[in-house]
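User: For my dataset I need records formatted as: sequence, then structure tokens, nothing else. Please produce one.
Assistant:
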Amino acid sequence: MPELSKKPLILLLISVTPFFKKSKTTSVQVIVNTKKVYDTLDQLAAAIAAANPDFSSTVMVGIQQGGALVSQYLYELLLKNNPHASSLEHGKLDITFYRDDVRNKILAPDPMHLPFSIEGKTVILVDDVLFTGRTIKAALDSLFDYGRPERVQLCVLVDRKEHRQFPIQPDYTGITIPSNRTDKLKMVITQDNEPQVVLFIP
């Protein structure tokens, strides 16, 4: 499995801490272990390749923060295993100022990297966890400020579909996990630079 660079790892660890700082005793429970994450990423990459025989007009965009990490893994897998994916471009999307649930909070946007046009292209939008659908709605709003794609495909590592608030469904789903509405699930990188999906426990 391709190894992520140190920069995204540092960004993730810095960004996760403030989001869950409501309790100083917050702990985590591993919901999806590293092997299962890798197996699921392999399956997602294969499904994306099968549905997109030509990547010449296709770009992959990961939503900061977790989605950017998932998309990096998928992008490297696609390049490694599919010769026709050599033309696939990859970027990262920050949606901080498009969210409708953080209006009274201090905003700290993440790095944005879209070094290509999305006009008339197929955009594979990637996130780590699909929950209410608000993040995806914000991502779509942000994307369309950069251009009008031909179509958008949604890929998620984890789907918590029983809590949807918007009519948004993924084209590619890794794992569907039953959960309580108050649960906070996220993909994180361990100290050994390995991905896991964890539940944050106050």
